[in-house]
Write a structure and sequence with these properties.
- The relative contact order is 0.18.
- The chain is about 45% helix and about 20% strand.
- Helix 3 crosses helix 9 and helix 4 runs antiparallel to helix 7.
- The chain folds into two domains: about 130 residues, 2-Layer Sandwich (Nucleotidyltransferase, domain 5), CATH 3.30.420; about 170 residues, ATPase, nucleotide binding domain (Nucleotidyltransferase, domain 5), CATH 3.30.420.
- By secondary structure, the chain is an alpha/beta fold.
Length: about 325
């Protein structure tokens, strides 16, 4: 029996989970609400919160799984990418625990774990498959050849889709995190307002121009109508969301055409967006794709995906040295 403890601390979620023989049996997440008053994640505050929360979160994950620390086969942790201070907390805790128990240490790439989150509820998902991975810091199209071999086909040149949601929300005067609020208001409006669609070759993305388009449009209209945002908020949100979702799905459809692979998945925090989920499933039905989206719990940052990725890496013998260090950015 293989029992893996997974630890996630890449940004502002302190999380721990237990995976037994490839099945998630506990998944505990502590959210850091302190960042809301600053309009974004403050790295120093995130690191301090991780230090306070990591022990209680791990203890709770073990209790919910009905196992003790001495039952663990290995400890998996997010090694990259993320906020370096936040990563350091999880890395040091994982290394110390693995060393004290004399068990293997497994380093996990956060974005690869997001892709494998699709296997948590669908363990028999066949490879290869394409995955559109969309989060606050990353927007990527990944070809998963296996649980441990993945190929990056396209990524954003500048801002990620999640960042575009949050920053356009800020332009509209919405509080942080603004992405979910845009989703909420979009359901009450119509995409009647023109929003720029940056043109990028291949399977790569760009969202910087989209944000600038929204900013210039709002500034222009407010000079004529001071209450423009308040009076048009649902339609503005619907227009922003429709454009971002349209860009994402257009690139994914192109990836299916280029690779001939029609087994497709979503992953990452932005895959919790209702517009993206609905559009993705509609397109999948239209094109006859075998499509899957994880439950909301496994879309945002969580340790279940780290634990499951750790389990697969353990089976493949991919272990880490105790000398390993966290990296803010790391290639696949």
């Amino acid at each position: 029996m293989s029992i893996i403890l997974g630890i996630e601390s890449s940004c502002d979620e302190t999380a721990a989970a237990v995976c037994i023989n490839g099945s998630i049996v506990s998944n505990v997440i502590a959210t850091q609400a302190i960042h809301q008053q600053y309009g974004g994640v403050v790295p120093e505050l995130a690191s301090r919160a991780h230090m306070q929360q990591i022990m209680p979160v791990v203890v709770k994950a073990l209790q919910e799984a009905g196992v003790g620390k001495n039952d663990l086969s290995a400890v998996a942790f997010t090694q990259s990418p993320g906020l370096i201070g936040a990563l350091l907390v999880g890395t040091c805790f994982a290394k110390s625990l693995a060393l004290s128990l004399n068990i293997p240490l497994i380093a996990v790439h956060h974005m690869q774990a997001h892709v494998l989150a699709n296997l948590i509820e669908r363990p028999n998902l066949a490879f290869p498959f394409l995955c559109l991975t969309v989060s606050g810091g990353h927007t990527q199209i990944v070809l998963a050849h296996s649980a441990t071999k993945m190929e990056l086909l396209g990524e954003t040149f500048d801002d990620a889709a999640g960042e575009a949601f949050d920053k356009t929300a800020k332009i509209l005067g919405l509080p942080y995190p603004g992405g979910p609020l845009i989703d909420q208001y979009a359901q009450q409006g119509q995409p009647l307002i023109a929003v720029a669609e940056p043109q990028v070759d291949g399977l790569n993305f760009s969202f910087s121009g989209l944000k600038t388009s929204v900013l210039y449009h709002v500034q222009k209209m407010q000079r004529e109508q001071p209450d423009y945002i308040t009076e048009n908020l649902p339609n503005l949100c619907a227009s922003i969301q429709a454009r971002i979702v349209g860009i994402l799905l257009k690139k994914l459809e192109r990836a299916v055409e280029l690779t001939g692979i029609s087994r497709v998945c979503l992953a990452g925090g932005v895959s919790a967006n209702s517009g993206l989920r609905h559009g993705f499933m509609q397109l999948a039905k239209l094109r006859g794709w075998d499509a899957h989206i994880p439950s909301f719990t496994y879309c945002t940052d969580n340790a279940a995906m780290i634990a499951l990725t750790g389990w697969h890496k353990l089976q493949a013998g991919e272990l880490a040295s105790l000398s390993i260090s966290p990296e803010a950015r790391a290639a696949w």
